[in-house]
């Protein structure tokens, strides 16, 4: 049996009208369900079965939304903060929905791919250590790459507090006094990449998440902006790399 939902909540979930605004639409006779004007805002409807229209146009139902955000520095990965701008503050009104949250966090000064969604079950699958979903980062170090750094990452770096990280991959992208490296993790502890680098004698000068699962950050998505994901892209978030 399809899940039923209050009519005013349906409009709110699709970012069409607040519950207060919906009562005005209802009073004006602009809403119909199966060609009949509803009598109350709390009438139950079944999205996908009932034909729900606003001003004569049928409304499609999207249960959840999935957004790719290219996070800039200085923004916190939180749903609200009294003193700092959050990732939700960057979502345009047309894409904003109640219950939206970041699936996983990036440090305030870390940039790149943040997934925003209102699908809690999907976020749990994406973040669960049991799923081994990879997160790929590009980092700039404060000095030449130590010869044993890649091997230590493969074996699992032991942090200064004694925590042993899961094996990770580190690949040089450029050399010199401030080299760039690519790092692939399968877990997400607090400041993990910075702490792993510190355990190897290096500091991270800049850090950007460039990929989640098998879905890369859209190179055409400007920093500070977000867009909705296609279904095929959502599937890629949960994919693991194929063995070569």
Structure explained in plain terms:
The structure is a single chain. The protein has six helices and 14 strands. It has 244 residues and is α+β, with helices and mostly antiparallel strands. Strands 6, 7, 8, 9, 10, 11, 12, 13 and 14 form a nine-stranded mixed β-sheet that branches. Strand 7 (101-102) and strand 8 form a beta hairpin.
The radius of gyration computed from the alpha-carbon positions, rounded to a whole number of angstroms, is 22 Å
Shape: elongated
Percent of residues in helical segments? 10-25%
* Residue runs with pLDDT of under 50 for 5 or more positions: none
Reading the helices and strands in chain order gives EHHEEEEEEEHEHEEHEEEH
List keywords for this structure.
244 residues; alpha+beta; nine-stranded mixed beta sheet; three-stranded antiparallel beta sheet; 14 strands; elongated
At a glance:
With 244 residues, the chain is α+β, with helices and mostly antiparallel strands. Helix content is 19%, strand content 24%.
């Amino acid at each position: 049996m399809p899940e039923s939902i209050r009519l005013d909540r349906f409009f709110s979930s699709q970012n069409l009208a607040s519950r207060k605004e919906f009562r005005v639409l209802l009073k004006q006779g602009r809403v119909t369900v199966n060609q009949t004007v509803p009598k109350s805002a709390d009438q139950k409807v079944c999205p996908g079965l009932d034909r729900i229209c606003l001003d004569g146009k049928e409304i499609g139902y999207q249960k959840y939304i999935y957004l790719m955000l290219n996070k800039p520095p200085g923004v916190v990965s939180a749903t609200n903060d009294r003193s700092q701008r959050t990732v939700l503050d960057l979502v345009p009104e047309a894409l904003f929905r109640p219950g939206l949250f970041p699936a996983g966090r990036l440090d305030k000064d870390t940039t790149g791919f943040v997934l925003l969604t209102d699908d809690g079950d999907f976020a749990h699958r994406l973040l669960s250590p049991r799923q081994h979903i990879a997160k790929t980062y590009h980092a700039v170090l404060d000095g030449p790459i130590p010869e044993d750094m890649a091997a230590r990452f493969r074996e699992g770096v032991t942090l200064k507090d004694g925590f042993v990280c899961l094996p990770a991959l580190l690949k040089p992208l450029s050399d010199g006094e401030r080299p760039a490296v690519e790092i692939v993790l399968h877990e997400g502890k607090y400041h993990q990449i910075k702490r792993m680098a510190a355990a190897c004698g290096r500091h991270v000068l800049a850090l950007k998440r460039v990929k989640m699962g098998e879905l890369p950050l859209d190179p055409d998505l400007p920093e500070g902006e977000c867009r909705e994901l296609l279904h095929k892209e959502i599937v890629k978030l949960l994919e693991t790399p194929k063995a070569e």
